[in-house]
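Hello support,

Our group uses your service weekly, and this is the first time we've seen a run hang past the timeout. The protein is GNAT family N-acetyltransferase. I'm not sure whether the cause is the sequence or the server load. Input pasted verbatim:
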Amino acid sequence: MISTVLEKKHNRKNFRCGVDELDIYLKQYANQDIKRRLAVCYVIADKNNDVIGYYTLSSNHIDISDIPENLAKSLTYSEVPVIIIGRLAVHQDYQGNKLGQALLIDAFKRILEISTLVGNHAVIVDPTNEPAEKFYAKLGFIPLKKSKRMFLPLRTIVDLFEK
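Update from on-call engineer: The timeout came from a worker crash unrelated to the input. Re-ran successfully.
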């Protein structure tokens, strides 16, 4: 499945992933963030255009002191550019079918495309709860030192797709 940018044709009102914050974001704030160019929301929808999964991408930077030492030692800047997967959610009726992993792979492909145009050193995620932390950790994300965010070097994603 390939995601598309959220549009008016996509039905969001029945989206339920089990995390109120993620449901509310999709229903009330995603379009505003797109219009304000704060984030882009990518969705996967069924044949009726009901959203069954989504993720958001935006850019930012992190302080080098927040990165684990073994990953920061070769960097000479005080801040490094990153792409943030701010939200990622799958409708509860589709959970357990690896759709979350498919969305993450889709995001990684887009991030690799972006990295050919704009420098970014890593991907950051904001896990909303312990199951999300475990999901990202299983996929190689590393906790940052000063926040609850998790970090995956872009090199890891490049290596993933070169195999």
